[in-house]
Amino acid sequence: MNRFTLAHVSDLHLPFEPRLTPRQRLSKRQLSALSWRRRRHLHRPEILEALAADVRAAQVDHIVVTGDITNFSLPAEFRQAAEWLRTLAPEGALSLVPGNHDALVPVAAADGLAHWADWTRSDQGWPFVHRVGVVALIGLDSALPTAPLLARGRLGAAQLERLEQVLVAEGAAGRLRIVALHHPPAEGAIGWRKALADRPQLAAVLRRVGAELVLHGHARDARLDALPGPREPIPCLCVPSSSAVPSAWDQGARWHRLSLVDEVERRLEVEVRRWSAEERAFVAGARYTLCLPRAVAPRPEAGAEA
User: Which of 84, 156, 254, 288 has the fewest Cβ atoms within 10 angstroms?
Assistant: First the structure.
């Protein structure tokens, strides 16, 4: 495995001032608009500009965005977000999964996720598989419209079934499997109101067939969890909002630079890049190293010779 560098950003909440129609006000969007009035000063355009500059300067091989790119799931927001994402990375160098704010209410594909098709591309639907060298980026869609005051997610049986098939196939091909989704897959990582409804079913898939790394957003603080795998724990990393100033709600803007190194123990070098209000730029924060799970040889078919 050659050295490969990945940028993980999440929960961008790109600033957008909503102009809701009377019909749109009779929906969850109205509550989100009221919340935005209280929180819009926390997601700063200058932080987003510095984030884009810092990620570009890092010369990463690929960027993963784990959802909540918009705030209100308005068609104009999806178009604006597509324009911003194109400034972040060249074509083919970015993958994204949607978050709960990107599915606040039901939105026709042509008005919503179709604008992001360049970064969710897949012939088979969800989960997508984007292969970059020996790395397989596997993107899950956990976003769905929910009742007011809820931000829960769900993958569904069909997506979980295909995920298991993809993980087995990519593992057998010797690729390093990185799973990305918005909602936390670790038990207790977030309260019930915002949790992944079928988290136990996802955990069971990962326990059976494994993965080398899981990335997510949605939580307000950075997290490092260990998910049970078939033989060794699977590291699970959360990056908090990459655009928020530090506050009582948010730990503060940051992104992770993840470098995969070609060694027997499959080391993952993590560099935290955090927003500094004093320097008005992203600066180096903590650095640490994780050992990713070793590959598990695929089980022989039933009846095959040992």
Answer: 288
